[in-house]
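User: I'm designing a mutation panel for Pyrroloquinoline-quinone synthase and want to avoid disrupting the core. Could you give me a predicted structure to guide residue selection? Please restate the sequence first so the numbering is unambiguous.

Assistant: Good idea. Sequence first, for numbering, then the predicted structure tokens:
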Amino acid sequence: MTELSLTRATLEARLRQIGVDRYHDKHPFHHRLHSGHCTMEEVQAWVINRWYYQSRIPMKDAAFLSRCTDPDLRRIWRSRIKDHDGGEHEGGGIRRWLKLAEGVGLDPDYVASGRGVMPATRFAVEAYIRFVRDEPLIAAMAASLTEMFAPAIHTARIEGLLAHYSFANPTTVSYFRHRLGEAPKDVAFTLNWVLDRALTRADQEAALGALTFKTEVLWAQLDALWHGYVAGNIPPGAWRPGEGQL
């Protein structure tokens, strides 16, 4: 028997519940970071590995645009690339992240090289790019809806970093402050687009599965970070404390 389609309100509620249950704000590494209990080496490892994810977001969005036939959708979506890449000489989330790297004592060129990224981080991030490149548009777009839950974690991060770490200042936390304004506009458009077009139960389940997958991509990165730098099992080829310092 074919399952009945969910109502728009029910689908939205189920999407939001995924964040309640699965978003990585609940990961113990974030609790450790925001409460000031991370060592500087753990903070540096987080900055290095999270940079890889940040740097690939515009590549993910470019992959999405390459298969998008609707020019109106392309016009709206391409602002995401500018948000991360910035202009030719200024701005952008990637530049702001490298300011954070500099603030925690890392050479930005070393961080940008990606040499110290853990294998598990690479696998998780590349899996996300492939998902967005290959899956149907509803699923590809729904995967980005983790941004619904991001403002709360950015707010907690700004407060926690400023309260507990000497490197934290308006420059080093500027990435998170900018995302407080950028993410909501992306969410408003994408959520409505998915809710408007995911009308069959199959498409609705695809959207829910895509968002679940994305939460797992984010969670897996933190699992690897904890195993490598909190538990002390740094994998071969990954950054080791003392490397890439200013």
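For picking mutation sites, this is relevant: The chain has one domain: 8-21+35-230. The chain has a mean pLDDT of 96.
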